[in-house]
Every structure is written in structure tokens, then in C-alpha cells.
């Protein structure tokens, strides 16, 4: 950030000059491989760098404000006799006491090289939600993350304490950690429809925000690796206005709810966002109507 002194004018620029605002810490700007980018910056590089500087300088103050707001919400809820559920502290204490189902979810983070930084952050945010809903379940699933490389570690480090999450992190890919016969890749392109989740089995969700750029990639990988694959029975239970590709956290929560004993239709309607336009499948309605007519005939009505 310091400008070099001009040899022709020794008294010129003999002090520190800063770009746009005075900063107290310079985390530098690095590319996706961790190499520091040269200065001076282009406009786009400067924008990214300043964003990182602001984050570094303000993160402690921001987190303190978030904690204060959360404390205020809890205080107001107590005074209004509203149950907000277990606290973070009690959940951490309970995490080792809750019996986990013998069913696991693996999030495959081997796609870092296919995403820009913004999309990688979206993946981490969705993983954070998966962790949150899983630890609040009375019967949580075993939660694993594989291919947990340097980029993923750097991205998730923005969330303090991630190392203490009730999640198993593996730097190796899933084939180096689990037996192939216990793996099932969840993919919307699979021809196999799943209805029940098997014990002692791990279901893989691709950690990819693709914006339709890598359609069918997870299914292709599963076929090439000789791994079982299947898709959720979306069309059987609900009609959707949009395509069937769901976010990581939506797939995770649907699997979790069904494993808890929630019927497929109820789980799908509860989890799928409004923008998906999910409603009860017409074929299911027709089937229910036929059953009602048949029951009426049998009862003589």
C-alpha cells in the first residue's frame, strides 16, 4: 500500500498513502490457489480486496451485535412465554447424548474448482443450515463431509467454531473413506426412485451450486464409479412449477424428515420453498379419490 519515493522528487510521497480509506489490517488479495495477486489492483480486484478488508475489520463488532440481538430476542421471548427451543449451549451438550440413526449423509466437496468464490460461499451456507437442522433433530443423521480441501477450509473458516460442529470432516474423497457397497449418490438425473432409506448406508449429496452449468455431473460420476444412485420421489408426491434440482440443505432436510418418520408428501410440502410452487400431485389425488370410491362401494354406501 505504501507508494515508492520518486527519485526525482525526494520530498514527494514520503508518507503512507492509503486507497479509499484508512485501514488497520491488510489481509491481502489472493487468487483461488492462495497466491497473492500483484498490485496495483484492477477495479474488480480492488473491489474484492476492499470487501475482505471491511470483513476483517468489522467481523468482531458484527458478531458482537448479532449476539446482542439474539440475547434480546431470547429475553423478549421469555417475557412473552414463547418457547424458542433449546439454546446453542444445551444443544452442544446434548450432541453426544442423542442417539444417531444408522443412516448417514455425505456432502461431496470435490467440485470447488468448478465454482467461483461466491458460489462456494453459498455451498458453505447451505452446509451450515444442514448442520443446524440435524443437531436440532431428536434422531439426527450421521453427517460427513468429504474432499474437504484447502479452499473449503478457507471458506468455512469465516464461521467461528466450525471445528466443533458435530460433523466428520474428511480430506479424502468418499471412496477412500467408505465401502462402495454402502454408498448411494442422490441425483435428479437418476432413473431409480427411492422410497425408503436403508440402514448402514450413506447417501451422497453433491456440494455444487451449478446454476444448470453442470447438469447431470453427479449422476455421471456415480455411474463412472459404479456407485448406486437414485432420485427423490418428487413427481410421485408433488407437482412443481420449477425444475427438480434442489439445494443441498433442502435435500438434506427431506432425507432427515423422512428418516424421522414424516410421510414423503408432508416432508416435501414442508421443506420445498414457495418459489418451487410445490403442491399435491394430481396422480396422488386421483389415486386417493379412487380409494375413497372403492371404500364407499365396499361399505355399501
Automatic annotation (TrEMBL):
Domain SAM-dependent MTase TRM10-type: 86-279
CDD domains, alphabetized: Trm10euk_A
Gene Ontology terms: cellular component: nucleoplasm
A GO biological-process term: tRNA N1-guanine methylation
Broadest EC class assigned to this enzyme: transferase
UniProt keyword terms in alphabetical order: Methyltransferase, S-adenosyl-L-methionine, Transferase
Reactions catalysed according to its record: guanosine(9) in tRNA + S-adenosyl-L-methionine = N(1)-methylguanosine(9) in tRNA + S-adenosyl-L-homocysteine + H(+)
Active site: 210
Entry keyword annotation includes Transferase: yes
GO molecular function: tRNA (guanosine(9)-N1)-methyltransferase activity; tRNA binding
EC number(s) reported in the record: 2.1.1.221
Bias-annotated ranges (Basic and acidic residues): 23-32, 57-69
Binding site for S-adenosyl-L-methionine: 186, 206, 218, 232
Keyword match Methyltransferase: yes
Region (Disordered): 1-43, 57-84
Stretches with biased composition (Polar residues): 1-17
Name under which the protein is recorded: tRNA (guanine(9)-N(1))-methyltransferase
Lineage: Eukaryota, Metazoa, Ecdysozoa, Arthropoda, Hexapoda
Amino acid at each position: 500500500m505504501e507508494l515508492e519515493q520518486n527519485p526525482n522528487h525526494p520530498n514527494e510521497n514520503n508518507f503512507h498513502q492509503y486507497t479509499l480509506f484508512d485501514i488497520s489490517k491488510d489481509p491481502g488479495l489472493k487468487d483461488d490457489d492462495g497466491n497473492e495477486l500483484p498490485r496495483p489492483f484492477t477495479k474488480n480486484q480492488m473491489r474484492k480486496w476492499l470487501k475482505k478488508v471491511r470483513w476483517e475489520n468489522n467481523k468482531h463488532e458484527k458478531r458482537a451485535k448479532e449476539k446482542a440481538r439474539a440475547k434480546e430476542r431470547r429475553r423478549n421471548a421469555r417475557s412473552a412465554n414463547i418457547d424458542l427451543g433449546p439454546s446453542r449451549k444445551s444443544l452442544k451438550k446434548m450432541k453426544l447424548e442423542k442417539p444417531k440413526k444408522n443412516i448417514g449423509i455425505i456432502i461431496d466437496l470435490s467440485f470447488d474448482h468448478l465454482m467461483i468464490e461466491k458460489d462456494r460461499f453459498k455451498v458453505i451456507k447451505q452446509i451450515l443450515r444442514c448442520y443446524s437442522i440435524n443437531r436440532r433433530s431428536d434422531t439426527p443423521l450421521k453427517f460427513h463431509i468429504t474432499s474437504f480441501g484447502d479452499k473449503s477450509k478457507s471458506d468455512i473458516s469465516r464461521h467461528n467454531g466450525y471445528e466443533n460442529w458435530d460433523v466428520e470432516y474428511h480430506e479424502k474423497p468418499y471412496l477412500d473413506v467408505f465401502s462402495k457397497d454402502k454408498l448411494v449418490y442422490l441425483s435428479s438425473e437418476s432413473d431409480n426412485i427411492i422410497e425408503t432409506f436403508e440402514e448402514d448406508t450413506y447417501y451422497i449429496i453433491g456440494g455444487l451450486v451449478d446454476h444448470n452449468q453442470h447438469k447431470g455431473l453427479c449422476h455421471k460420476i456415480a455411474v463412472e464409479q459404479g456407485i448406486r444412485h437414485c432420485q427423490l420421489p418428487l413427481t410421485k408426491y408433488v407437482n412443481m412449477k420449477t425444475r427438480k434440482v434442489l439445494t443441498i440443505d433442502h435435500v438434506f432436510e427431506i432425507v432427515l424428515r423422512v428418516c424421522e418418520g414424516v410421510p414423503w408428501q408432508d416432508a416435501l410440502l414442508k421443506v420445498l420453498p414457495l418459489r418451487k410452487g410445490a403442491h399435491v400431485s394430481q396422480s396422488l389425488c386421483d389415486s386417493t379419490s379412487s380409494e375413497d370410491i372403492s371404500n364407499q362401494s365396499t361399505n355399501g354406501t
